[in-house]
Structure formats: C-alpha cells, structure tokens
Amino acid sequence: MRLAYKSDDDAPVSAERAPVSARASARLERLESESVYILRELAGFERPALLFSGGKDSAVLLHLALKAFAPQRAPFKLLHIDTGHNFPEVLAFRDARAKQSGLQLIVRDVEDSIRRGSVRLGPDGSRNAAQAVTLLEAQQEFEFDALIGGARRDEERARAKERVFSHRDAFGAWRPRAQRPELWGLFNRHIGAGEHMRVFPLSNWTEADVWAYIIQEQIELPSLYYAHERDVVRRDGFLFPVTTLTPAADDRAIERVVVRFRTVGDITCTCPVESDAGNAEQVLAETLIATVSERGATRMDDRANSAAMERRKVEGYF
Amino acid sequence: MDGAIFPLRAGAETRQIRFMTAGSVDDGKSTLIGRLLLDSGVLMRDQADSIGDDAEDLAALTDGLEAERAQGITIDVAYRYFETPHASFIIADAPGHEQYTRNMVTAASASDVAVIVIDASRVEGGVLKRQTRRHAAIAALMGLDVIVAVNKMDLVDWSRERFEDIETAFADLAGTLKLSGVTCVPVSARRGDNVVRRGGAEWWDGPTLVELIEQSQGPATRHDAPLRLPIQAVLRDVTSRFYVGRVEAGSIRPGESVVLGPHAYPATVASVRVGGRAVSRAEAGTSVAIEFDDERDVTRGDVVAAPGVRYVRSVVADLCWLDETPWSRSRRYVLRQGTLETQVLIEEINFVHDVEDFSRRAGASSLSLNDIASVRLVTRDPILADVFSESPGTGAIALFDPQTNQTCAAGMIREAT
Fold this sequence. Notes:
A: alpha/beta; Rossmann fold; 10 strands; about 30% helix; B: about 425 residues; alpha+beta; Elongation Factor Tu (Ef-tu), domain 3; six-stranded antiparallel beta barrel; about 20% helix; globular
C-alpha cells in the first residue's frame, strides 16, 4: 500500500480508509441540475463554443452539455486552444471524444499566433498564458458570442470571485471590479456588439465532486489521469515529467516513478503526483485526503505569484 | 496551527448547503471563515502556506483579488467550499464595506441561510450595532433564516450574561423584522471554540456553529406548492418535442394536467425526463425535459403551471438598486422572471426602506446604489402573480438596463393584485 500524498509535517493517511461509495447522490443531483440549467441558458446564443481540451473538467462539461440537449445535438462547437505542448494521449483522447460526440472540433494553435507575431513568449517559454491571445483571436475569427469553460471556483482565489455568466468587453478583458451582480438563477445574458460571454457551468463543483461524478456517470478520461510509470526529475517539491520538450538537464537525476496527473495542461508547467490510483474510485479516495490543492500540486504557472491567475484572467485567459 | 478536525472529508449521503456570511472584518468574519476552512480540513497545505508566517492570521485566507489586497478591502463576493462528514458547504462571503447592500443581496440570492457575525465585546447593554441591524433586515427581505455567531466570546471571558443579552436583543430584532428561525451560538473564531469543535463555555450545551448550519433547512421549498416550470428551450428530434427547464416550485409528474402561458391553454404532461431518464416525479430545483400529449406552441419565457395560476401586468415589489447609475424615470428596463424577459416601468416608489432604523421614507423620487424600496412595477407582457415568500423561484425578479446591459436591480414580489 502506498501513501497518497507524503509530506513532512502531515501524518500519513491511508487512502484505503477513505469512504468512496455512493457518496453523494443528493448533492450531485443538485449540481447536475444546476449545470444543465446553466447550459440550457445558452440556447439563445448564436455562436457558442465549448472549450474542450480533453482534460477531466472539460470531459465532464461535454458530458453535461450532451445531456442537457439530448435528444437534440448540443448547439455548441468544440474549441481547443493548442499550446503545441500537450501530452499526445490527451490530444488523441480529445479527437476521439469529439468525434464520438458528433460536435465539430475547432483547434487553433498558439504556434500560429507566435508566427503571426501576436504572441511573444516570455523567458520561461511557457505557453499557458499565451493561450489567452490565441483564444481571443479564435473568438474573433468565429465571432463566438459565448465561450463555455470548465473552470471551478474552488480551484483558485481569482476564480472564487468569478460569475457563472461572466461578461467580456470587446477587448476580451475581465474586469473584476465591474462584474454584474448575479441574482438567483436569473442570469443576465445580454452582450453588446463584439462582446462575448464566458460561461462556467461547473462553478460550484469541487475537485471531489468532479471525480464522484466521473464515477457515477462512468465518464472516460485520458489515461494519464490514472497511475502509470513515467520518467521524472524531482525539483522544488515537484515531479517534472521528462519529455522531448522537457529533457532532463542531467540524465542521472531521472527516476522511474508511478504517477498520475491531477490536471493536464502545458507539458512545460504541469507536473504529476506520486500515486498508484489506477481508477476513478481510487483517485477520489486520494482526493478526499489530499493536503495540497489541485493547482498547487501540479501547476508551476500559478506559483509565480499569488495573483498570477488573476492577471492572466484580466488579459482574457479563462 | 491546529490540525483538521475532519481529516477525511466524505460522507455517504451528503447534502449541499449554501450559506452566506455577513459582518465586518472587525467582527471577525474573515477569521471565522478561515477557521471553518482550517478546522474542517479543506484548507490545503499550499493555500495555508500563502497566508505567511502569522499563523493566527486566518483572515488572510479569505483575501481574493490582487486589487483587493492592494486596497486592503474586499470588493466582491467570494465563494468558498468545505465539507464535514455530514454535508458539503458553499460559503458566499460578502464583504462588509462599500457597496455592502449590493454584495449582500447578491450573496443572499445564492444562499439557503445567513450567518451573521457579531463582536460580543462591542455589544454593551444589549444594543446591537447599526450594521448588524442592517444585515438582519436584508436577510429578512431576502427570506433567509439567520444564524448569529456571537464571536470573540473569549474577550468577554465567556460571559453567559453577555451572550444572553445579545440573544434577547436579537430576538427583539427578529420580532420587528418578522424574521423566523433565528439561532445564536457563542464562538471564538480565533481560538476555534464552538465553530467546528466544542470549547470555551462550560455552560453552553447547544450545537456548534457548523452543527447549526448542518441542521438548517434553507428557504422552505414546498413540494406541495403549485407547479411552476419556466421553459428555457424547446428541443426536437425526429418524432418528438421536448420542453426543457428547471422546476422552480412544486413538482411535475406524467399524466398531470397543466396550463401553458398567460392564456392558460390546458395540456397534459406525457413524460418527464431527468438527465435522459424517464421519472415518475420531479421536484423543485430539478432540470427536466417534458413532453406533452400533443404538440404545443410553447417557447422560452412561457411557464408550465398548475391550473389556477394567475398573471398580472402590475405588481408591488421590494427592489434593491444595484447599479452605479441611479434609476431614471424616463428609462425602460428589462425585467426577468423565470426565463421571461419583458419591458418594465417603475411607475411609483411607495417608500424607501431604511435598513438601519427600519423606518419607511415616503416621497422618494430617486433610487440609487444600495437603496431598497417598495415600488409599483408595470410590465409590457403579463408576468406570474407569484409572491416571493410563497414561491421564491418565481417571486424573484431581476432588472437589466437595455442600454448598458448592466444588472441594475434585484426584486422580490410582495403583492400581485
């Protein structure tokens, strides 16, 4: 038996003790009903797109969207902003799942924005922040009036203040101090010319809710969410995956470790955690006793400073 | 820092409870939220690290935006999540400074119950602060039950007399405001007493704050209330039409006789689906897809209702003005009730509520940010004659400004004659 998350100051907790059985139904029902209600509020939009990366939150989002509009086809296009730094398993899953859903998948590349000159990368080479530029370019190209994302308020402090229907001006900017009050379920769906709406149907879900729902609905995910062996290098408390994009500086530092990813994003700033959770039930059990937050455990980009996410969001990140 | 009280955050069959917190930083509201997160074990190590070296500074956990930290104030509602073995919770944390009413109204509309935090060391002779009276008044207007966290009890040596004075004062206030279901609990957020775990007063054998929240029922969702199902969209496949929406009051079942829209066209529900599965009954709060026995001309904005439903074009409502731009008599606004949007005029301001001394100021000719007023509204299309206290899902309205697209008011229908 392995320990879920080891740390110096926490007493080890056994993952096997965490109750994972049908946790939930009443609360998952409330969350599902609310998300379906939010997605159906998009029925009046002319060109809505659902941001679909192949990650677990977007997989849950797509599942809910198909459910909300069944038996009709969901009135959304799928949009993925590809940093060019994605894990191949995730891209394969993205394409397969999109095809299966019957919805059109549009992919726009950060690489093209770099070529156009609209994106210039910083010294760390991370393309995560650059996604915002490519996303806004895609929004303008297709004149999307709503972009539906799987962001959750429990992920991060700036996201904790995000609306469900979040208005973006013609520059795509989020203005946290001028947010519209959001009252009951009486969403304000009005936008002006050139503006668009960001919509977050999973706002009130937690990481554990997402996993409980993945179990309940048997939602398929890319394989790297589950335990697998991978070459990594330990540095600053993170496990860095060794890939062609992120080769080890010193081959002697490479270890073969059983890991899984809690989030999947840009390869250069997304790290796995040590875990032998091989299925969704085991992942949920670990999630319930985790002592480090989802983004804190795995995302270098949020570590830069405590306002990193807020700044990216103001610029158009979702 | 103390360890988590609930290291394993899970329950077999858990409810989700949404509550709001009101009070100022001085009352220890942010400290209380930090304590809830810390002792329930939801606070993750990296998040705890970011509060800095001062382990006592639980309040820092609830800071949100960079702009807020720069100004040292909170400017918007933040949502927080925690769990106990019995329930999961969403806190809508409303800041206590400027735009207070606006933020509290927003947070209250997303909540089942309000937790009002007061500083026991600053309530002398049972006289509640103006701010506390305002919080209670808004909770009453928005139809929320109230739990009072009488905080900083450690600073008054857990004086039972002090606590009971406050309890009595709050009972008086509740009587004036016609607030039902007010409960008080003595706590020390700083020390963690009676928040998640017991402690402090030996004389207190009542529940902890978390237990009180767990026991709260939320606004009475009466499943025997008359059905209201505002339609969001109509979905079609080759052979059938599905009308989708969320049940806002009552319940719906196959075979039931209903009426459609203001003209009350009779129809029979043929099937009810939830998440793609046919069900024998769906209650308030559930998103459904229904079929009728026959094809019907129903679109977004129409309501599927129990027979006996009434529609009107004029209602009396309490309106909270939330926009920086004051109400303009010459302007038409858009009213949203359920999924219906129609034009609305504020025909008359009956009076403005003073939410601190509870007086009614008649003769007002303007409405600006944070004002709460009783008004007569006239709508272009007929709207449901539903009163907020009986049918919160359809007795609630929002006003939008069609020129700026801002959300400018929240309303509760009080009379619909």
